Amino acid sequence: MVSKVLNVKLSNGREMPMVGLGTYARKADPGQFRQAVEWGIEAGYRHIDTASFYDNEEEVGEGINNKIKDGTVTRDQLFVTTKIWNDRHAEGQVVPSLKESLARFKLDYVDLYLVHWPFSVNDKGEDANIDYLETWRGMEQTVQLGLARSIGVSNFNEEQLERLLNNCTIKPVINQFEVNPTLTQHKWVDFCKQHAVVPVAYTPLGLISEARPEFIGKDVIKTDPKLGALADKYGKTRAQIALRYLIQRGIPVIPKSFTKSRIAENLNLFDFELTDSEMALVDSFNINHRCVPANAFKGMKNYPFKNE
Ligand SMILES: NC(=O)c1ccc[n+]([C@@H]2O[C@H](COP(=O)([O-])OP(=O)(O)OC[C@H]3O[C@@H](n4cnc5c(N)ncnc54)[C@H](OP(=O)(O)O)[C@@H]3O)[C@@H](O)[C@H]2O)c1
Fold it and tell me: Where does substrate bind (predicted)?
């Protein structure tokens, strides 16, 4: 099957599909990650996002390798992203950490390796105070060794990204952070684009899918009739409107689902276009609400959301 998913060009000349399959889950049954990846590739996804922290690289790799073996895709048609966790930030730990991920995947390289967070932790969970510039030197080695095709960051703030851009040999091509209709991040998205760093939206469905009780009352986006009417106009769901809104802003998205129909739904975004006033309507739901504040790390020196 020919993938209809459009690509975005990275600053190093490589391309990345605008829609990827997210794979983070707090809880999963055995085989669920593998199954989601297989359904994803069958549905046309060519970009899979995971992380060593998600503890699913074996299953994600199994799903990928099954779909390569059965002829659905070739390795070079896929874009695989993983991330280094906060406890492996010393320069000498970066290459070994990626090699361990690759062994779990049973793959020779990843397309994108990300620094998951700008802070580091030691084995007691305390701040290890390793400068992310040191980590970045290890990240650069992964490219030089051919283990990662591209490197980037996640959850870096403006000051951290600018400092990295001014002190690197290989530039980060991506910053992955939370963006959705209730956390629209215009200033930050523009900053990344101006510096040729592609902003990638994690938790792109935000409060549309978030079921945590502490968010009840903030999630009017789930029931608002104007958004419902907009979805009906195009025969789409609220989730598809949210994803289309991000793509039209030039922001790649990585929605996660374990549900076969939703996996397909989240890729079915390329047969309609929101008008300027419809984009403004989706934008009007912004309440600067973070679904992923990473509160457990608030005490870290390089916690990125301190100034909010
Ligand atoms: N870099 C980072 O620090 C970071 C942080 C968070 C996330 N991420 C990445 O970004 C990915 C996506 O973020 P996320 O998983 O937090 O949130 P998300 O993709 O916005 O939402 C996932 C949730 O939405 C549900 N869902 C999926 N499609 C739906 C649809 N069409 N309609 C209604 N509900 C739908 C899923 O349920 P079912 O599975 O039951 O269908 C799941 O509960 C992650 O999986 C991970 O790969 C990265």
Answer: 116
Indicate the domain borders of the chain.
Answer: 7-294
DSSP state of 203: S
| Separation of CA 256 and ligand 1 centre (Å) | 4
- Residues forming the active site: 54
Reported confidence tier of residue 308, pLDDT bands at 50, 70, 90 = confident
pLDDT band at 4 (very low <50, low <70, confident <90, very high): low
Give distance in angstroms: CA of 264 to centre of ligand 1: 14
- Whether 118 lines ligand 1, by a CB cut-off of 6 Å, is no
Q: Which two tokens stand for residue 229?
A: 């009417």
Per residue in 143-185, pLDDT (tens digit) is: 999 999 999 999 999 999 999 999 999 999 999 999 999 999 9
- What is the atom index within ligand 1 of the atom nearest the CA of 176? 1
The three-point CA angle 290-295-299 to 5° equals: 130
Q: Which atom of ligand 1 lies at the shortest distance from residue 263's CA?
A: 28
* 289 has binding-site annotation: no
Distance (Å, whole) CA 138 – CA 188: 26
CA of 49 to the centre of ligand 1 (A): 11
**Mean pLDDT for the chain?**
96
For residue range 20-62, what is the model confidence (pLDDT) as tens digits? 999 999 999 999 999 999 999 999 999 999 999 999 999 999 9
Q: Which residue of 86, 236, 254, 256 sits with most ligand 1 atoms within 8 Å of its CB, as the best mutation to test the pocket? A: 256
Q: For 7-294, CATH number?
A: 3.20.20.100
Asked if pLDDT for residue 114 goes beyond 60, the answer is yes
146's tokens? 């051919």
For tokens 């076969």, name the residue: 260
